[in-house]
Design brief:
The complex is a heterodimer of chains A (166) and B (406). Chain A is mainly alpha-helical and 166 residues long. Helices cover 75% and strands 0% of the residues of chain A. The longest helix of chain A is centred in the middle third of the chain and has 26 residues. In chain B, strand 5 and strand 6 form a beta hairpin. In chain B, 64% of the residues lie in helices and 4% in strands. In chain B, strands 1-4 form a two-stranded antiparallel sheet. Chain B is mainly α and 406 residues long. The two termini of chain B are 44 Å apart. Chain B has a domain of 259 residues. Classes of the chains: A mainly alpha (166), B mainly alpha (406). At the A-B interface, helix 2 and helix 3 of A face helix 4, helix 5 and helix 6 of B.
């Protein structure tokens, strides 16, 4: 059962990810990205990390991508115009991608032996409570640094966007 | 196997009741608004217009679905489907009562053991987050409908709805976070169970009364943001008909149009259920059963039946002589069922939950009949300059007091 759902949602994630690149219209690409994020959330859920799955849905699929779609709709971006690709990329493009993936898989198998593979439902502490404890004890410094970074980004956005007052 | 059958039965029951509720909610809305504005409301189809939803459904199904030639057909057809899908997911994790036990019974020689089931479809331990996630995904349905229609009015409606829903999600989430601090769980059933009990024997421990800091402000902020999230008056800018014709659903007709209506009413029921569970104690009665809260339900039904019989004897219209006594008998029957002792532990939680839910739904309709629409800049300024700071302050005070006293 776990394997079936893993294969299903991994397949959806990969197809959506390829679709992001293939689609010519920005809205279609953005919505394919939403599909990738949704299937990733399901995979997190299957690993036992409910909180991360829901945060993924709320933050990425529900907030960031809505903003993307909003901006694309506001600017009324048209479909991308395809120029013919060069001869080199036409001949070597697909073989090069396949070679790269084979290389990636081989190196992953070599460096991470199969003895410590992650199993579904391995994590029991994926709820909000253990997550919060971990964030405020073991990972306090990265958490605070990240929030400071976001604060700087917000201030920067306000400085850039405000009207000039003379 | 047993689990599958019970779940299938519950699924069918919840779906049937929910769909009927959605259809009749519109009848209730039209009737209530009509009475607020001193009109009759729907009264032609069936007694008191009670068959009007059925007639509306038949009309919408049999109408021709027009697809304009200039639309982006894939997203045009996907958008209403997506809106309804997202609106219907949330109801599956809403608990609406305590557990239900079916005693062992014998059928055709075989004995079927006692079945115990909780009154909900699924108990998710991050339930409230799932509701937030689904409601934040719901904006895609409206935004895509507006964009794919390829019409300037619907595009404006879609843009407005995305901006509005992103803005009001912040105060909504902050208002939800405050009662969660004292509840200490994200499961909806757990949140409702954290509000059991009474202060001084008669003040309920609902979140809006709960010490150390009553969540009454969160409740008000939540309700205001919920109006915006469900695109209801006074925040129905995405479909403001005197500026945008009909907003995001200008180009929709027939069933695709009905889908958006269904999604709106489903969202309304969902946010009212969440408000009931988070702030109004779920299925906890207003005063303890030892002081007789179990008798209020049969009493209300009996009163309603008596009023029906009185108006049946002195009818205002000729038809009332026949229809109102029938309703009276139905109400008396309900009063009898609610007063029947074996059903009390099952039906009383359900009654209190539905009573609070219906009250909140009535508030939604009442406000629609009362308030005019906001201007767009007022809407945004209200969310960011007033609602958000107030929600933040409320969350801070609640967190401080919970840390101090718990």
């Amino acid at each position: 059962m776990d394997l079936f759902f893993f294969l299903l949602f991994a397949f959806i994630a990969v197809v959506c990810a390829i679709n992001v690149v293939l689609q010519t219209h920005p809205i279609s690409s953005a919505l394919s990205l939403v599909g990738v994020m949704g299937s990733l959330a399901v995979l997190y859920l299957m690993l036992g990390a409910e909180f991360i799955a829901m945060a993924q849905m709320i933050v990425y699929a529900g907030a960031i991508m809505v903003l993307f779609v909003f901006v694309i709709m506001l600017l009324n971006a048209g479909a991308e115009k395809r120029k013919g690709s060069s001869l080199t990329s036409q001949i070597f493009g697909i073989p090069a991608i396949i070679a790269l993936f084979v290389l990636l898989c081989l190196s992953a198998l070599k460096w991470f032996p199969s003895s410590d593979l992650v199993k579904f439902g391995d994590f029991s502490g994926g709820g909000a409570q253990p997550f919060g404890y971990a964030l405020f004890t073991d990972y306090l410094l990265p958490f605070e640094v990240t929030s400071l970074l976001i604060l700087i980004a917000i201030i920067g956005a306000i400085v850039l966007a405000r009207k000039e007052i003379d | 196997m047993e689990f599958l059958i019970i779940t299938a039965v519950k699924l069918a029951l919840v779906l049937f009741v929910f769909m009927t509720t959605l259809a009749y909610l519109q009848w209730v809305e039209r009737k209530v608004i009509a009475h607020v504005q001193v009109r009759m409301g729907p009264s032609r189809v069936g007694p008191h217009g009670l068959l009007q939803p059925l007639a509306d459904v038949i009309k919408l199904i049999t109408k021709e679905g027009v697809m304009p030639p200039h639309v982006n057909s894939f997203f045009y057809l996907a958008a209403p489907f997506f809106a309804v899908f997202m609106a219907l997911i949330s109801i599956s994790i809403i608990p609406f009562g305590t557990s239900l036990t079916i005693p062992a019974f014998t059928l055709a020689g075989a004995t079927y053991g006692p079945y115990k089931t909780m009154m909900e479809l699924a108990d998710v331990n991050v339930g409230i987050l799932l509701i937030l996630a689904v409601s934040s995904m719901g904006v895609y349905g409206i935004a895509l409908a507006g964009w794919s229609s390829n019409n300037k009015y619907s595009l404006l409606g879609g843009l407005r709805s995305s901006a509005q829903m992103i803005s009001y999600e912040l105060p909504l989430s902050l208002a939800i976070a405050a009662p969660l601090l004292s509840a200490g769980t994200l499961s909806l059933r757990g949140i409702a169970d954290s509000q059991i009990g009474y202060y001084l024997g008669f003040i309920p421990r609902w979140a809006i009364f709960q010490m150390p800091f009553p969540q009454i402000f969160s409740f008000i902020i939540f309700m205001i943001a919920a109006f915006a999230e469900t695109n209801r008056i006074p925040f129905d800018l995405p479909e403001a008909e005197n500026e945008l014709v009909a907003g995001f659903h200008v180009e929709y007709s027939s069933m695709t149009f009905a889908a958006f209506f269904m999604a709106e009413y489903a969202n309304m029921v969902t946010v009212c259920s969440v408000a009931t569970l988070l702030f109004l104690g779920g299925w906890q009665p207003l005063w303890p059963a030892t002081l007789g809260s179990d008798f209020i339900a049969p009493l209300i039904m009996f009163g309603a039946g008596a009023i029906c019989f009185y108006h049946g004897i002195y009818p205002a219209r000729p038809f009332d002589r026949i229809t109102l006594p029938v309703f009276g008998v139905v109400f008396f029957g309900l009063a009898g069922v609610l007063a029947f002792p074996p059903t009390v532990p099952i039906l009383m939680p359900l009654f209190w939950f539905l009573a609070k839910l219906c009250f909140l739904l009535f508030v939604f309709i009442w406000i629609r009949a009362t308030l005019p629409r906001f201007r767009y800049d007022q809407l945004m300024a209200f969310a960011w300059k007033f609602l958000f700071p107030v929600a933040l302050a409320n969350l801070l005070i609640t967190g401080f007091l919970v840390a101090l006293f718990d």
